[in-house]
Design the sequence.
């Protein structure tokens, strides 16, 4: 089969492309962001890439895909001159050519007939999915997986696997312009992890209740002999289950949960039903990662992996690229890259670093880049999210709201830069030996990490 993917360079669609290629299909694709490293990864797999969404390739000799797989970046929107923003999509519809969404194609061609373990939640999906895949791999189950990032233990974001299990990051964002259901309703998991739930994606959801309804739709797809693994600390998830649950449940996190933790996040005892059953000793910090680990341990048990075996595997878990990733150290100043982009995620990330570095200074550098943050929906939470940082630096370019006003409660601890050069200059003026510079964004952040390291190296003593 020849499939052509519209929006192929996104993390999810790029992973889908890799799975399709591994399955023996011919894969081509197009996007407006065809550049390294994703373009190099895809081309290395033998995938032909086209820049843009022009319709002309449809008339090219030898170009006749059996199916067009459409990413949710594609819309029916138009340019200022009235022309379609995605002419290829318009041409597909006019000619009556077959198209489907990424999640639907995945469900029909990869997930069908397998034991799917789906990890959902506002935060920690990528990390927990990676942990779970690694645990099953080390247990000899040879799982397939699709992760919205690159687990360092595997070095790739997706693989088909040889076993019956498939671990997938289950996103609540909508599927496509023609299918406004959350992606995860397509996956039909036998094990569903509900990691946490709070308001996000303000561009498509009006309120938290709307997201809770989508999570309930996910719960509806789990069979009676399946299992829902739920964070016992989250009231929002209790409301989801109260809407109806027809499967076994396992809880984690709370003191009275099926799985709980005792001890510091870097070294803790796993308790099951109050009894100590395993010990996790690893390099990760933060209570959030401790909870992620409990979720992975609980889910793994559903496919026959003991908590002891899961804990042992987590001891060698190397985290995910762009999750508190140390990018370099110059003159005693450490520069990190992290994907945190929601106020709660920012607060959790800063707290995790604070637990690691003690009283050393943390300089938090961030850009409100997600759709939710750009809309200003959660701007009032920014001072709260940065509470444990010593200094904060916000990139305000492209925002329609006043970042300086939102951060005013922080007083002199916060600065705002209208562009990257200004932001870097502000950080350079404050950074000193022993500092930890934490850069947070769900995008590339203009390569700020490399630029900071380079300029710190050239700065006068």
Sequence:
């Amino acid at each position: 089969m020849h499939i052509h993917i519209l929006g192929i360079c996104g993390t999810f669609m790029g992973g889908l492309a890799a799975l399709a290629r591994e399955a023996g299909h011919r894969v081509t694709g197009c996007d407006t962001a065809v550049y390294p490293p994703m373009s190099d990864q895809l081309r290395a797999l033998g995938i032909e890439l086209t820049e843009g969404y022009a319709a002309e390739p449809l008339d090219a000799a030898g170009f006749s895909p059996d199916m067009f797989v459409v990413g949710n970046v594609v819309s029916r929107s138009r340019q200022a001159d009235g022309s379609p923003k995605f002419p290829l999509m318009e041409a597909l519809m006019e000619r009556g050519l077959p198209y489907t969404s990424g999640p639907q194609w995945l469900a029909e061609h990869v997930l069908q007939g397998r034991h799917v373990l789906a990890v959902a939640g506002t935060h920690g999906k990528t990390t927990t999915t990676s942990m779970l895949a690694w645990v099953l791999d080390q247990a000899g189950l040879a799982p397939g997986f699709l992760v919205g990032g690159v687990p360092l233990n595997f070095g790739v974001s997706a693989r088909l696997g040889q076993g019956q299990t498939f671990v997938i990051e289950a996103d609540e964002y909508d599927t496509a312009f023609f299918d406004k259901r959350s992606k995860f309703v397509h996956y039909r998991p036998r094990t569903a992890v509900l990691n946490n739930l709070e308001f996000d994606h303000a561009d498509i959801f009006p309120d938290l209740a709307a997201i809770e309804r989508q999570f309930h739709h996910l719960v509806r797809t789990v069979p009676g002999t399946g299992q829902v693994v739920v964070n016992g600390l989250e009231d929002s998830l209790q409301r989801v289950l109260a809407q109806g649950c027809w499967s076994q449940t396992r809880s984690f996190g709370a003191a009275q949960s099926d799985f709980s933790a005792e001890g510091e996040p870097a070294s803790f005892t796993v308790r099951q039903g109050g009894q100590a059953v395993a010990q996790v000793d690893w390099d990760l910090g933060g209570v959030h990662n401790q909870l992620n680990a409990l979720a992975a341990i609980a889910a793994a048990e559903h496919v026959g992996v003991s908590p002891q075996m899961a804990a042992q595997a987590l001891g060698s878990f190397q985290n995910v690229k762009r999750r508190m990733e140390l990018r370099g150290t110059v003159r005693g100043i450490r520069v990190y890259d992290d994907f945190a982009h929601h106020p709660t995620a920012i607060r959790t990330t800063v707290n995790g670093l604070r637990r690691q570095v003690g009283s050393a200074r943390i300089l938090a550098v961030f850009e409100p880049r997600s759709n939710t943050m750009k809309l200003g929906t959660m701007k009032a939470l920014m001072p709260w999210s940065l509470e444990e940082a010593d200094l904060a630096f916000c990139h305000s370019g492209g925002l329609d709201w006043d970042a300086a006003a939102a951060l005013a409660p922080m007083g002199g601890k916060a600065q705002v830069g209208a562009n990257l050069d200004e932001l870097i200059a502000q950080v350079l003026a404050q950074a000193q030996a022993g500092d930890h510079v934490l850069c947070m964004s769900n995008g590339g952040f203009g390569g700020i990490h490399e630029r900071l390291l380079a300029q710190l190296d050239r700065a006068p003593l």
In short: The mean pLDDT is 90. The first helix runs from residue 11 to 22. The chain has three domains: 2-101, 113-314, 325-458.
